[in-house]
Design goal:
Length: 758
């Protein structure tokens, strides 16, 4: 906030007392002869400046540096050598008078013989101003623009720092009285409004004032103009009036698009409106009562009842109220009063009205700037989130673009449509994408960071072997991979090392081959019951052979072979296998999406969060009974689907009673299924290729995530399998089986861990 001085009205209401110069035009100072009657101290100051500039000229420096110039803080010390000056002539008051003389302040600088301009320096953590006195005296008229430019050029780094710091730290005001910093006593009145106190110019003046003590402050409009011009050229400021500028601060928004810090523009709008309200209501009511403006008094009373006494918290400077206040002030007949006070009140009110009119317009542009900034933050956040999710989860990321845009507080349908298209284009240009439609016609947007494509396909292939709900994701991932392979995207699998990539591709091919064989066998099993056919063939062939031996009939034996084959085929077709639980689950889940996809299809992220929370609660409770507790041998840490189900069944009552959301469920099968699903979601599942799975061995192994993260436990399990392989060294199938598990635990374990744990 600017410091209060006796000359407030001169600084912020009237024209400045110093000369206003355009930096492109010459700025002249004159010789001593143009200002007769200089005081002794003024002459000594000019002599000191002459010596100082002579020394600068002797150094033959190419560029003028401000440190060579005489500054006000060194002036008193420099005058000590002039013994002809009396003690009275060396006082601060005498030097003040001398400065006014040589700067020709009374003549508005037309015949000045010296020039005043500041430069900025660091003083510890602070930025301070040094006020330089400049008087080269090289001719009748000397253009001192090079000195002005040199001083500002030296200050540019700190000017940038000031602008940057202010952009990060907008002005804060009293929430109850936001206009308090604009209202101060004047020389004549106990309450006065200074509308320009909210401007950046007032902060610059405050900075300059600190460079003057012990001497009186002298306005330096040239520096303010240079500062503002530089700020405008770097797009750091907005212009409200020609002499009223505001910083364009860095917006700080929450995830929902709300302001964490109130922007500078809004703070000034609230302060100006509050200050104008208090000022105008104080003076206009008095003027109206003195002049007996009954109609206007009625309007003032209505305004006070409706907008001041009846104002709700947080609505004390709302748009409707401010517009009404501005109209009230414009309607007031100031011209009917000829007093000096009425004139000054009118000028102050109308200046504040002009500022508020412009701030209201700028508020609209702020809304657009907020939307642009919120979108930029959302875009950066989503791009990072896609990469992080792909890297850690190795699954497809699902986005509802419209919902993401609405979530950041953008309400305009036109803006939502524009930003949605822009966001989609950006994501498509950066990542692998696929757009599909759900059964209800809603668009589902799948995204993956193609740098990890092979890992994603490998992980989804592994998950699909255990949970068929990932089948849809796997098919989409393969489509994205095919699309990015022809022509090949330069970022495809770029985040994977070549040797890791080869292992992943080989592993995926094995699992795909296994799945194809599994599907082929399943299709065959749907058409023929091989067991029924074999038994029918044996039974019928035995029957025909018995008849042949009993009746000594060769024909019966010959006919028996084709007849038995026909009966076997018919039996295998007639006695088709009933669907197993796994087949039923597969059929029920066919076409369904994973829990993450379901949430996107429904567009309800809240439901997804609730589902995840429920799964987490069930999983934590179940883990205590299934994975938790002490273990006698390391094999107790190894599970397959069969052993998991057995443990769940054994502890079903205990788990159900410890989970409130399952406690009331009466269907044990449903409870068991929910627990199994939750446990699998929070376990590490290693799918083993079918071609290396021996008879009576599981085709997938499960571990607790916490156990699998621990290197020591992984190493112990690997040693256990190594010992088992040694015991079965004569059985090549078992050895291959155990070697695959050992390799996974010691080498390829990273595929099953989040990136941050690897």
């Amino acid at each position: 906030m600017p410091e209060i001085s006796e000359n407030l009205e001169a600084e912020f209401l009237d024209e400045p007392t110093d000369v206003v110069s355009n930096s492109l035009e010459p700025i002249y100072i004159h010789t001593l002869q143009t200002l007769p009657g200089l005081s002794p101290v003024a002459k000594c100051i000019m002599d000191e400046l002459k010596d100082r500039h002579r020394r600068i000229a002797k150094q033959s420096v190419k560029d003028i540096h401000p440190s060579y110039l005489l500054t006000l803080d060194k002036l008193s010390e420099s005058l000590q050598k002039y013994t002809n000056l009396s003690v009275q002539a060396r006082t601060e008051q005498a030097i003040d008078v001398a400065l006014r003389q040589i700067l020709d302040l009374d003549g508005r600088g037309e015949n000045r013989i010296a020039y005043l301009y500041p430069f900025l320096i660091r003083d510890g953590n602070k930025i301070v101003s040094k006020i330089a006195l400049i008087a080269p005296q090289s001719g009748d008229k000397t253009d001192i623009r090079p000195y002005r430019e040199a001083c500002f050029r030296e200050s540019t780094e700190l000017v940038n720092l000031i602008l940057s710091n202010r952009a990060k730290k907008p002005r804060t005001v009293d929430e109850e009285n936001p206009g308090q910093f604009l209202i101060h006593p004047s020389k004549k009145e106990p309450l006065w409004l200074y509308p320009k106190f909210g401007s950046l110019e007032s902060e610059i003046i405050s900075l300059l004032k600190k460079g003057f003590p012990p001497y009186s402050y002298i306005p330096i409009q040239d520096f303010i103009d240079d500062f503002i011009s530089y700020g405008m050229s770097t797009n750091a400021l907005i212009q409200v009036l020609s002499d009223f500028h505001l910083i364009i601060d860095e917006l700080d928004l929450t995830e929902t698009g709300e302001y964490r810090k109130i922007p500078e523009l809004i703070t000034n709008y609230r302060a100006q409106a509050d200050g104008l309200e208090k000022f105008s209501m104080h003076y206009l009511k008095n003027f109206a009562q003195e002049a007996n403006f009954s109609f206007y008094l009625t309007k003032l009373n209505d305004f006070e009842i409706k907008y001041i006494q009846g104002a709700e918290p947080g609505r004390r400077q709302n748009h409707e109220k401010v517009v009404y206040l501005l109209d009230l002030i414009r309607e007031f007949p100031f011209e009917t009063s000829q007093t000096d006070l009425a004139r000054r009140v009118s000028e102050t009110c109308l200046l504040s009205v002009k500022i508020l009119d412009k701030l209201i317009i700028e508020k609209e542009s702020l809304i657009h700037r907020r939307s642009e900034f919120a979108y930029k933050v959302l875009e950066e956040s989503l791009l990072k989130k896609i990469t992080d999710y792909t890297k850690e989860e190795l699954k497809l990321f699902n986005i509802n673009l419209e919902e993401e845009i609405r979530k950041i507080g953008i309400k305009s349908e036109i803006e939502i449509d524009t930003f949605q298209k822009k966001l989609k284009e950006k994501i498509v240009s950066e990542f692998g994408t696929h757009e599909a439609s759900s059964e209800n016609g809603q668009k589902v947007f799948y995204v993956v960071d193609q740098g990890y494509m092979a890992s994603v396909i490998n992980k989804l292939t592994s998950l699909t072997s255990v949970d068929k709900r990932y089948k849809n994701q796997l098919e989409i991932a393969r489509k994205i991979n095919a699309k990015m392979s022809n022509p090949k995207n330069p970022r495809l699998n770029s985040s994977l090392k070549p040797d890791v990539l080869m292992r992943l591709l080989e592993d995926s091919r094995r699992m795909e081959k296994f799945e194809e064989e599994k599907i082929r066998k399943a299709e065959f099993a749907k058409k023929f019951n091989l067991v029924a056919g074999i038994f029918s063939f044996i039974f019928s062939f035995t029957f025909f052979m018995t008849v042949s031996f009993t009746f000594d009939s060769i024909q019966s034996a010959i006919i028996g072979i084709p007849a038995s084959l026909i009966i076997a085929v018919l039996s295998s077709i007639f006695f088709k296998k009933k669907e197993s639980m796994e087949d039923t689950q597969s059929r029920e889940l066919k076409g369904q999406d994973t829990p993450e996809e379901n949430s996107v299809v429904s567009g309800d992220k809240k439901n997804l969060k609730e589902k995840e929370d429920k799964l987490s609660i069930i999983s934590k409770a179940a883990e205590n009974f299934i994975f938790g507790g002490k273990f006698n041998k390391i094999s107790d840490k190894i599970f397959d689907l069969k052993s998991i189900r057995k443990k769940i069944e054994y502890h079903l009552t205990d788990i159900q009673s410890s989970v409130p959301i399952l406690a009331k469920e009466t269907d044990r099968a449903k409870v068991s299924s929910s627990i199994e699903y939750a446990v699998l979601q929070n376990s590490v599942v290693i799918a083993i290729p079918e071609d290396i799975v021996p008879r009576n061995k599981p085709n997938s192994i499960l571990f607790s995530k916490n156990d699998f993260k621990a290197p020591l436990i992984r190493q112990e399990i690997a040693e256990y399998y190594r010992a088992e392989a040694e015991k079965s060294r004569h059985d090549t199938e078992l050895v291959r089986y155990y070697k695959f598990l050992i390799n996974t635990l010691e080498v390829e374990y990273y595929k099953y861990l989040p990136k941050k744990v690897r």
